[in-house]
Design goal:
Belongs to the amidase family. GatA subfamily. This protein has 493 residues and is of the alpha/beta class. The chain has a domain of 230 residues: Amidase signature (AS) domain (Amidase signature (AS) enzymes, Alpha-Beta Complex), CATH 3.90.1300.10. Helices cover 35% and strands 12% of the residues. The chain has 15 helices and eleven strands. The chain has an eight-stranded mixed beta sheet. Strands 1-3-2 form a three-stranded mixed beta sheet. A hairpin with a 5-residue loop joins strand 10 and strand 11. The longest helix is centred in the last third of the chain and has 22 residues.
Length: 493
């Protein structure tokens, strides 16, 4: 085996090549580090080749001893909202410039060194993202925008845009992302890769810098469903001592049912996902994917999710409210950026936060503080929580008629940089199809379904009932066995 094509191999292929000694972990790590020179598409925020190669050497020793983990020696990169001891963690914000955590996030541990019970993956570094995971375009990072490998004039999606772009550009075979309102699924769609958000609470949130605590959920991003199944198998499992939102649900091998027949699978098609506002090119690609499912034996069932439109106002009340509380800890006292000139403690708070936070973060903090303020809590926040419950109930009614729900991830393909610069609400509206599942805490994923205008990728969204990740991954894998959209890559990659 030559090392020149290692970047084109999937997670599963690399894992097999490493276990069979066709290539070493150091060779794999060295090959990927060479591709990171110049930081293509501004995807990485921190790289340390010494750390990466030391991890690879340790993996080779375990592989030689026959004690390697599930994914021993396979490279991964982490979204910069997961704290790490060996790399700086900034959450894409100036206020955390240079911050280094004294511990690793649980998800980082679970994928990391097998000597500590992890899957044995080797970290390539930390990936760019919208500041504190707030955004749909990756234009909000304090360290510069990430560009889409399919067209560098277009956004990669957000907030996990660095993760999606890095996987699409073959800079890493896998990456972690977080999904609060669609931040794994939407950039996966825009960059032509696969990503899954598990049921809320299945993967630990410990060590994930919080944006909206009742919504944030980590998950894997890779090129295909098989790789996502491998990664998710390593990520999930209870973390009850460290994460109060962790579910006491045992880890699961999500690869076990990947090849099950789809004969008789009922796929629900929400009429609200196919109405006015959905671009014709996106609809054509999604419709084509749905026809493939029919060929595979699945049955398309019309359903309704009547409160879909309400998910946007509900989300943009609840999420900013939680953000205003979570981000109060960034005040310049204990860690991160501190203003240089101030007269007293209050002045230091004000100047530190004004200098450290970007415009979108400030906007959401102010919105959240407003809806939680005296006189508005009942009118806005409490009502939003009631409608959130109704949105979750809509899904449960739908799942009496179908097994899986399918539709578009976003109303359009990736837009050009600056198109929504003066209209943040336009970015918010792009989340209309991903927000409902997030508000309900359901698992959802995006997989390549074709191409739209200017050859830009289009993603198909699959939503499952609670703890039905295996069913989603099976449906995605079978479609990918019948199509080749997930095999396509940007020009020049």
């Amino acid at each position: 085996m030559t090392t020149s094509n290692l970047h084109d191999m999937t997670v599963a292929e690399l894992a097999q090549a490493l276990k069979s000694k066709q290539v070493s972990a150091v060779e794999v790590a060295t090959g990927f580090l060479a591709r990171l020179g110049g930081n293509p598409h501004n995807t990485f925020l921190d790289i340390d080749s010494e750390v990466t190669l030391a991890q690879a050497q340790a993996s080779d020793a375990r592989l030689a001893a026959g004690t390697g983990g599930l994914l021993e020696g396979v490279p991964v990169a982490h979204k910069d909202v997961f704290v790490t001891r060996d790399f700086a963690t900034t959450a894409g914000s100036k206020i955390l410039t240079g911050y280094r955590s004294p511990f690793d996030a649980t998800l980082v541990q679970k994928l990391g060194a097998s000597a500590q019970g992890g899957a044995g993956m080797v970290s390539l570094g930390k990936l760019n993202c919208d500041e504190f995971a707030m955004g749909s375009s990756n234009e909000n990072s304090a360290f510069g925008k990430v560009t889409n490998p399919w067209d560098t004039a277009r956004v990669p999606g957000g907030s996990s845009g660095g993760s999606a772009a890095a996987v699409a550009a073959r800079l890493t075979p896998a990456a972690t992302g977080t999904d609060t309102g669609g931040s794994i699924r939407q950039p996966a769609s825009f960059c032509g890769i696969t990503g899954i958000k598990p049921t809320y609470g299945r993967a630990s949130r410990y060590g994930m810098i919080a944006y909206a605590s009742s919504l944030d959920q980590g998950g894997p991003m890779a090129r295909n469903a098989e790789d996502c199944a491998l990664l998710l198998s390593a990520m999930c499992g209870p973390d009850l001592d460290r994460d109060s939102t962790s579910l006491d649900v045992a880890a699961e091998d999500f690869t076990a049912s990947l090849n099950q027949s789809l004969e008789g699978l009922r796929i629900g098609i929400p009429k609200e996902f196919f109405g006015e506002g959905l671009a014709a090119d996106v609809r054509a690609a999604v419709d084509s994917a749905l026809r493939e499912y029919e060929k595979l034996g699945a049955k398309l069932v019309p359903i309704s999710l009547p409160r879909t439109e309400l998910s946007i106002p509900v989300y943009y009340i609840i999420a900013p409210a939680e953000a205003s509380s979570n981000l109060s800890r960034f005040d310049g006292v204990k860690f991160g950026h501190r203003a240089k000139d101030y007269t007293d403690l209050v002045d230091m708070y004000k100047k530190t936060r004004a200098e450290g936070f970007g415009n979108e973060v400030k906007r959401r903090i102010m919105t959240g503080a407003y809806v939680l303020s005296h006189g508005y809590y009942d009118a806005y926040y409490l009502q939003a929580q009631k409608i959130r419950r109704m949105i979750a109930d809509d899904f449960q009614r739908a799942f009496t008629e179908c097994d899986v729900i399918a539709g578009p991830v976003a109303p359009s393909v990736a837009w050009k940089f600056g198109e929504n610069a003066n209209d943040p609400v336009a970015d918010y509206l792009a989340d209309i199809f991903t927000l409902p599942a997030s508000l309900a805490g359901l698992p959802g994923m995006s997989l390549p379904a074709g191409f739209g205008a200017q050859g830009m990728p289009v993603g198909l969204q699959l939503i499952g009932n609670y703890f039905k990740e295996a069913q989603l991954l099976n449906a995605a894998h079978r479609l990918q066995q019948a199509t080749d959209f997930h095999l396509q890559k940007p020009a020049g990659v």
